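Lab notebook: predicted structure, single chain.

Context: the supervisor wants predicted structures on file for every construct in the current expression panel, including those that have not yet been purified. This is the next one on the list. No modifications to the sequence; it matches the entry in the shared construct table.
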Amino acid sequence: MSGAATTPAPDGPAPRTAGGWRQFTVEGDREAQDSALALLAAVASDFAVLRDRAGLRVFCRPTAAAMVTAAGQPFHTAPAEVAALPVPDEDLPVTGPAASGLIEEFLTASGPLVASLAADVRNGSLTRTDAGFDIMVAHLVAVARYLPRDDSAMGTLVRRHHPIPLSFPSVSAHADGMIALSGGGAALRAQLRKQYSAAAPVVERRVRSLLAQLQDGGPAAFDHAQRWHDLVDGHRRKVQDALERGELWAVTEDGEVLPDPGIGALHALTAAVPALRDYLATNVGYLSMRFMMGLLYLSLHAGIGLGMSERMVLCNAIGRSMEAVGRRGVSELMTGLISAISADAAAVAR
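Prediction complete. Output recorded below exactly as produced.
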């Protein structure tokens, strides 16, 4: 397990700026935006999608923009010229000179898939919630591929928990933190438990099917999830390369990741264990996962069009379903992770 490099290399990824961008803006609710994206998916293959409170913004290269304009409503107005994609990177836990280019590349690569998901939501073959659920599970499988499968303590832990990806505590901690920060407290937790219990058979069956496909080459029932997994897996490797070159680094305080222990049990555990804090602050594989998880949440909001409350419900449901399918609680898994991190660090030190 290597630490992050500190010397930047001159040949890292750079933003694609040749020819600039053409920005289309579509107003209306998310259903109207889905209609626009469904049309976009049929006429172009090179674009990025960003939704926010102001509406839907689509960024195309000049050639693609001409095709989109020709499609007519709602893209009938002339697009505005934009020199660079407005990369929303302020909430990502990793920064550095390669960050903007990597975010831009991911948004452009994922744009057509986001549009095809919107088309499926539009035609009724997929619900928005299922679309979010599927890409979240696919994302967790893909980002966990940085973990070893060898005879190290961590590799042994990975094999023992197969097919459950050891990245899933990330969404459990995220749900934990969102619940704590919401002010809903015990009442909200009880509501989420009741909601999950009612849906558990369906949710856990879907998780098993997704894991069987994405991890073990099982029946390909979820083409969109497979496409998302492959996109994320390839991009995470580029992120890790940039970390190893020193072109990305963690946003930390005094060299350590110090989560607020007041926003959940998992954050409190992380803050209390030095070996885990050191791992989170320096391991390039884990840092690549953190960067990619930031892009997942960006995609859920700016691409799929999910709100914060929907994201909280999905994080909670996926965390609970992974625990149920893996037959181990997240606290037990975190204890195993801490033990494996400490054992492998001790082995390297000897």
